[in-house]
Specification:
Elements (H helix, E strand, L loop, with lengths): L1 E6 L3 E7 L5 E7 L2 E4 L8 E2 L2 E5 L1 H4 L12 H18 L9 E6 L7 H9 E4 L2 E4 L4 E5 L2 H11 L8 E6 L4 E7 L2 E2 L5 E3 L5 H15 L5 H10 L1 E3 L3 E3 L1 H22 L1 H6 L3 E4 L8 H6 L8 E2 L7 H14 L1
Parallel strand pairs: 1-7, 7-10, 11-17, 17-18
Antiparallel strand pairs: 1-2, 2-3, 4-6, 5-6, 8-9, 11-12, 12-13, 12-14, 15-16
Helix pairs in contact: 4-10, 5-6, 5-7
């Protein structure tokens, strides 16, 4: 089978493309915390053991790894891949190719990232995927999902893609059905990390607690903060979403004004798209809300697009 991994700073989205052409896509929280070496049921990776997922979230805040830049992502990315293999009970020998997403903001690291993911060791077992790693830029991968759901592979339409992640915002252009990779750009530290940081600041101010980025991410996802009971922060987070929507649209209008002026459709994808206030967009000047599309399952569009790309190239 082919495996598809859109390794995020918040969530890992992944897909399985079976030999019969069936596409399956899922997600898992991307969170790690160092464990003691005698915690033998946790993975041993590069001399350390790590809690993963829910076990990691239950650790002390200061022990949870904050992944906020490429280098930290590179450090834990092999563990994310290993975790998918374990979760889906996939043997490494069953893998033909692994398609992995990487933000356009980090394209300079592409060779190093391919090398990092090609060969690593967990629990003393070597996972060698040399020659099987295929990198598809985030945003660019989503193009094939948009074509699959809205057009067809031979379409001549023009549109723009805005891919909002936890850390990055990627923008790609499709002109007359063709992706213009030379115009594709990414920006770091412009994603919903800004909402997460506001949540951290709010909790420090209101509850006198310092929480990790991953814990703040959980608050953002659930609207609830657990501290000696459950606190409903949904209204506070709604305000943060409005603030972020104003910020990110103004940032995009400043850097990519042409897409709002000339492109007949703009698809907003990625997990961060769920945190954009449609009402805020409707009130924004310099935007025609009728041109903007929020696809269903938008967070999976890079994974789905990579699977569509793979199917097309199978013939």
């Amino acid at each position: 089978m082919d495996l598809f991994l859109d390794g995020g700073y918040g969530m890992d989205k992944y897909g399985l493309l079976k030999e019969n052409g069936d596409m399956i896509y899922k997600k898992q929280i991307s969170v790690f915390a160092e464990a003691s070496l005698d915690t033998e049921d946790m993975p041993l990776f590069e001399g350390k053991r790590y809690y993963i997922g829910e076990e990691a979230l239950m650790e002390e805040s200061q022990n949870i790894l904050n992944v906020i830049d490429y280098k930290q992502h590179e450090k834990t990315a092999p563990l994310s891949l290993w975790n998918v293999l374990q979760k889906e009970n996939i043997k490494k020998e069953e893998i033909n190719n692994i398609y992995i997403g990487l933000s356009l903001a980090q394209k300079e690291y592409a060779p190093a990232f391919i090398k990092r993911m090609s060969k690593f060791k967990v629990n003393g077992e070597t996972f060698d995927f040399t020659g099987k790693i295929k990198l598809i830029p985030q945003g660019v991968g989503a193009k094939y999902a948009i074509d699959h759901f809205y057009y067809n592979e031979n379409h001549k339409e023009t549109y723009a893609i805005i891919d909002i992640g936890q850390l990055t915002v990627d923008v790609a252009n499709v002109i007359s059905g063709k992706i213009r990779s030379e115009n594709a750009q990414g920006s770091e530290h412009e994603g919903v990390i800004k909402i997460i940081q506001q949540i951290q600041e709010y909790i420090a101010r209101e509850f006198s607690e310092v929480i990790s980025i991953k814990e703040a991410q959980e608050v953002m996802l659930t609207g609830k903060y657990n501290l000696f009971g459950v606190h409903d922060l949904s209204s506070v987070i709604d305000k943060f979403k409005e603030d972020y929507s104003v910020y990110v649209i103004n940032m995009l209008k400043q850097r990519h004004r042409n897409i709002f002026k000339k492109y007949p459709k703009i698809y907003i994808v990625g997990g961060g798209s769920y945190y954009i206030s449609k009402e805020t967009l409707k009130k924004s000047e310099g935007i025609s809300f009728d041109t903007i599309v929020f696809p269903e399952d938008a967070e999976y569009y890079n994974v789905i697009g990579s699977m569509v790309f793979s199917k097309l190239n199978r013939g």
